[in-house]
Amino acid sequence: MPIIERRMKLNFCSLSSGSSGNCYYLGNEFHGILIDAGISATAIRKFLKNMDISMQTIMGVLITHNHIDHIKGLEVLTRKNYLPAFTTRNIWKSILSPQIQISTDCIREIPLQQTFHLAGFDIEAFPVSHDAPETIGFHISAGDKKITIVTDLGHICETASRYIKAANFLVIESNYDEEMLKNGSYPHFLKARIRSDHGHLGNHQTADFLAENFNENLRSIFLAHLSKNNNTPELALETFYRKFSEKGVTLSENQKVSVLLRNMPSEMIILTE
């Protein structure tokens, strides 16, 4: 009798996405992981409970860099929930301080561009360009499905490009609208920082790159880390569709693009049945 391989259900949810806090959930029927912990541990536990996800099924949290909108809840999660946290040695050096103390039992150092295993996932961290001591994205494999999460970067370098192109499901930054930033109230130095190669991706940059490099294996695009003051979900999507139209790229009925909101969790999204 032939052996039938059972495909594991893959679920994704954004708990928060934006400069006020970032946290994402990825899981299957048995276990899950968090990517960043930029909102309070209380809010993380509440949001997960509302989705019937027990903290006991969370096997760890992956950390992209040391900015507070990515690590706000980290200390409490490690102290109260004994949650192991995974990031590079350089990022740990930038996080640990008298103000943020993490038990050595919860500290996990990971290499760049080498696979490690967690909760049934194969995970690779890769470097990106951002104004932190070190910033990384994550490429996560679940069987033959690939998820790339890259939310803070000023430009898409060759390394990041390779991981983005390999994704079936992509969470990518679309931080600001160029005109809103240009005409907004931010001081010149802050506008320059945001636009720089070590700042954030604007709608036009993300849309241009995806239109130039779109492939049929990319099933879902989630536009993330939208600015509160310099962007709107409508503008991000409008730019995306305009750039795709200019390049003659059409989404199939199986391909979707959506925006992850700043101020509320997304629904639980079933990536694979």
Description:
The structure is a single chain. By secondary structure, the chain is of the alpha/beta class. The chain has a single domain, classed as 4-Layer Sandwich (Metallo-beta-lactamase, Chain A), CATH 3.60.15.10. Helix content is 27%, strand content 26%. The protein contains 9 helices and 14 strands. The relative contact order is 0.15. Mean pLDDT is 94; it is low at 1-5.
Order of helices and strands: EEEHEHHEHEEEEEHEHHHEHEE
Mean pLDDT: 94
Main pleated sheet: 7 strands, mixed
| Structural class determined from secondary elements | alpha/beta
User: Outline, from the CA principal axes?
Assistant: globular
Q: Approximately what portion of the residues adopt beta-strand conformation? A: 25-35%
